[in-house]
Amino acid sequence: MNVELFIPCFMDQIYPKTAFNTIKVLEKAGCNVTYNAEQTCCGQPAFNAGFWDEAKAVGSKFLNDFSESSYIVSPSASCTGMVKNYYNDLFTNTAVHNKCRAVQNNIFELSDFLVNVLKKDYFGAELEGRAVYHDSCAGLRECNIKDEPRLLLSKVHGLDLVEMADTDVCCGFGGTFSVKFEGISSAMAQQKVNNALDMEADYIISTDASCLLHLQSYIEKQQLPIKTIHLADVLAGGWGNV
Fold this sequence. Notes:
Elements: E1 2-5, H1 9-14, H2 16-28, E2 32-34, H3 44-48, H4 52-65, E3 71-74, H5 77-91, H6 97-106, E4 107-109, H7 110-117, E5 126-133, H8 137-142, H9 147-154, E6 157-162, H10 177-180, H11 182-198, E7 203-206, H12 209-222, E8 227-230, H13 231-235
Parallel strand pairs: 1-2, 1-3, 3-4, 5-6, 5-7, 7-8
């Protein structure tokens, strides 16, 4: 199966290892992965900030960078949700209406693609310790992902996956929200991390690196005995050169 890889701009700059691990997982699942190095951003930051003309310009480039005939897979529920749901506001009844709909139908978040399209949930991954899974707002509410990451994590050798309180409550990042409302954002991160620590977890795992970036910053500032890790990094662990 041919798959086009969409790596969000912030992941390209901050978490390139997660991008490479996404490729390793997809290839182990039997996919032929291609990556267009000209890709940039989906337009979500501009869209959320109210700059829809700028978001449309960036979104138009996104539609040009990807094919309407191949699966598009991303290790980001947030960016996937932007394309699937909010491109309607930008491109409905425009010259690229039909291509936009085709791309929206073809783009998937990683866990959704692995479980629901490829029907694969075991990769021989290993991770020793206890973990909680954080349901990102985009993953749960925009991509309807809940059971898929948990199914994948339940097959990881050595991992004890437990549920924390308020797992579906926002971590406080929210893109520009964390900039405009720093105090509220930090308090929400504190609550999320404390809920994980109450479960004596070693890791907080999610499908959204943006949430993990926010939580990891709080963890490091407070010097807490827990760390964040992306689902793709977990699935690529314990085999190959990770």
